[in-house]
Amino acid sequence: MILTLTANPSLDRTVDLGGPLTPGGVHRIAEESTQPGGKGINVALGVHRAGLPVIAVLPAPADDPLLALLEAEGLPHRASRSTGRVRTNLTVLSTPQLTTKINEPGARLDAAEAAALEELLLEAASPGDRVMLSGSLAPGLPAETYVHLVDRLHARGARVGVDTSDAPLAALAAALPGIAPDVLKPNAEELGQILGTDGVALEQDAADGRLEGIRDAALDLHHRGVGAVLVTLGGAGGLLATEGRAWYSPSPPGPVLSTVGAGDSATAGYLIAQERGADPGARLALALAYGTAAVGLPGTTIPRPEQVRVDAARVRAL
After folding, report:
1. Which of 3, 61, 104, 219 stands 20 to 30 A from 87 (CA)?
2. 3-state class of 303 per DSSP?
3. Which CATH superfamily does the domain covering 2-317 fall into?
4. Would you list the DSSP string of 216-274?
């Protein structure tokens, strides 16, 4: 079983202007859609559409529109009660291939709501399950929340992945090697946060074929206790460090409609491959295939298996 935690879920509204975005101007929406969102929910949708058992865990009021969207998707989920409404994240698509995101902070969880969410996740997890802790933390949750959850979930025999940024990521890095996730999924910006360097420069290095710094940073995290480090590098591809080695692949070619949810789709692809017993190179290949499929779809659309094209031949050991 795969479980995901989305501590700060969202309704993802995407509007396409059909033209350029002009600051201070008046725009008319050409197309719009609203989809269930939040990184863990996105990952769970990818896993669910691949036919693997999954449960998405999240906080939400019983009458929140997000839960109705999850029901419509048929996504198995468990929601702990909270009093604040689920936030709305707005994605504005404009030409030339520009994505602008405007995210609400989310509802604050009080101590009782935070405890209820944690216990719901722990009750759902069984020995051998894979649990993915994804995204930002809801206001009110301490930065060390993911460190605490990794420790408690390991005590239950679960294998735990984390995809986060900023203060929660810094807290996780500071807890190494004493408390370490089984999978860490940074993008270039987040790897830069760990290293104290410019993530944009790291991504450009990868695009230019300079992979040594990214490889060494990912292997360092791996040697400090992280089971596998999956670094997504946007259009430059991705790198995986695990089992004492590193693999790299450029992104497969494909159209770009929306980058929203691409990293989460890559995480889903990795978990799907891992659940099926794939070797590291095949895991990286499927992760990038899912991420590439996602950027070719509108809004926060998570790909289905028939939309994913895998080219494992592009993966190489570093």
Report:
1. 3
2. coil
3. Ribokinase (3.40.1190.20)
4. HHHHHHHHTT-SEEEEE-GGG-EEEEETTEEEEEPPPP---S--TTHHHHHHHHHHHHH
CA–CA separation, 56 vs 65, rounded Å? 16
The one-digit pLDDT tens for each residue of the chain (318 residues) are: 999 999 999 999 989 999 999 999 999 999 898 989 899 999 999 999 999 999 999 999 999 999 999 999 999 999 999 998 999 999 898 988 788 889 899 999 999 999 999 999 999 999 999 999 999 999 999 999 999 999 999 999 999 999 999 999 999 999 999 999 999 999 999 998 998 888 888 888 888 888 999 999 999 999 999 999 999 998 889 999 999 999 999 988 878 777 778 899 999 999 999 999 999 999 999 999 999 998 888 777 899 999 999 887 799 998
Alpha-carbon distance of 126 to 219, in angstroms, equals: 29
Ranges of each domain in the chain: 2-317
Closest CA relative to residue 9, chosen from 174, 123, 135, 173: 135
